[in-house]
Amino acid sequence: MPVLIRYCLMAIWPPFLLATGCVVFILNLLFYLREFLDYLLVYQAGLVNSFLLLFYIQPSFLVLALPIGFLFALLMVFGRLSADREALAVESCGFSIWVLVVPTIVVSVFLSSFLVVFMDTILPWGNTSFLKLQYKIISERSSVIIREGVFVKDFEGYILHVAKKDEGKGILEDVIVELLNEKGSVFRFIHAKTGSIHEDPINYHVILQLNDGIMQQLGTKKEESLDEFFQMKFKACALDLSAKKIRNGPIDLRSPRNISLKELSAQIELERKEKRDTRYDELEYYKKFSLPFSALAFAFIGIPLGLLSRAGSFTGAFLAVVLVVIYELFIMFGEVGGPMGIVTPFWAMWLPNGVLVFIGAILVYWLSHKYDFWRSLFKLLKPSSPRPFTSFLMSATKSK
Do 26 and 89 belong together in one domain? Predict the structure, then answer.
């Protein structure tokens, strides 16, 4: 039996590493390639800084790639065991299918526990390091971003225009700033005689300092209304150009995704004392557990599906894609429905895992009782025999 277990576990690692690497590559290709080229070519961040940003963003991809890679590996390995009739040979030798299932489930528990620690330590470190270096690059390379006579749209929610710029002193002259609403239309217009860009040392946000200007606003940020208009003059005005975020990347240093479980728990308790809405922070808190334990949920559903598919590894890869899409749809529903109050934050994040584990448990039970599935199921659901105390009461009643 140990030889069989060792054979099964050793077969998982090569496809697991290969699938994880492929998923990380695809995620980088889809979500970060353009930003990497922007930092390298547009912002002129340099090769070292560009690759450092690439390195810092990898933990956020690994959190997703490791469970997906584990699912791919399970479907491929157990699909091959089924296609080659090796699983049937195990049963023919008198061993239960649980000989293959239990050790893999134990490995998935260890992987999930590792991912919990990973999300609590490595992921916040990667996100905050990415933010700090990102803002530093943007701040130091403002001479590249902001050019004379060019409309700059690199800062989300803002359009900047500078008539003249002193490269040595970093002073901007005749500065125009247009603030965009949620529809992308200009709702606020700022014109200042001079300005400068610097980095906030506390939160590493990029700050645009304006002097001697005028601000005009038509309507509000959410809707345009010709009936609402105001104008004001100012001596000094500071705009946080990173309030929304610069392109893609972690949103804020103190975002729930960028702090540890202990810090997030304290933040939720503080919000409850102040009677503020805690649903979003609770959602992120439960997500720090539910997403790592998706590896366990994928193990419950992946092992029986792999054993049931007799077409080999291609079927396993297809099933993995389908399961990942279904899981992501559940997560998307939870991320939208949780803050809105449609479902509680706990169920918003744990429902996908619960559904996969439930279906997987049924499939595992079917595999271990496939010749008498319905009879054993009805026997399992049938009310058990009366307990001793109940039998005593029944006999006492009859004696009376």
Answer: yes
Q: What torsion do the CA atoms of 72, 76, 78, 79 make, to the nearest 10 degrees?
A: 130
Q: Is residue 142 part of a domain?
A: no
Rounded to 5 degrees, φ, ψ at 159 are: -125, 125
Is residue 133 located within the same domain as residue 216?
no
pLDDT tens digits, 63-101: 999 999 999 998 888 887 777 776 667 666 766 667 777
On whether both 73 and 180 belong to a single domain, the answer is no
Same domain, 8 and 108: yes
What string of H, E and C letters represents the secondary structure of 304-351? HHHHHCCCCHHHHHHHHHHHHHHHHHHHHHHHHHHHHCCCCHHHHHHH
- Do 178 and 312 lie in one domain? The reply is no
**pTM to 2 decimal places:** 0.73
Which residues fall within 8 angstroms of residue 331, CB to CB, at 6 or more apart?
349, 352
Residue-range definition of the domain harbouring residue 198: 155-240
- How crowded is residue 386: how many other Cβ atoms within 10 Å of its Cβ? 11
Q: Is 309 exposed, middle or buried (0-12, 13-18, 19+ CB in 10 A)?
A: buried
CA distances for 183 relative to 37, 179, 243, 247, angstroms? 27, 11, 17, 17
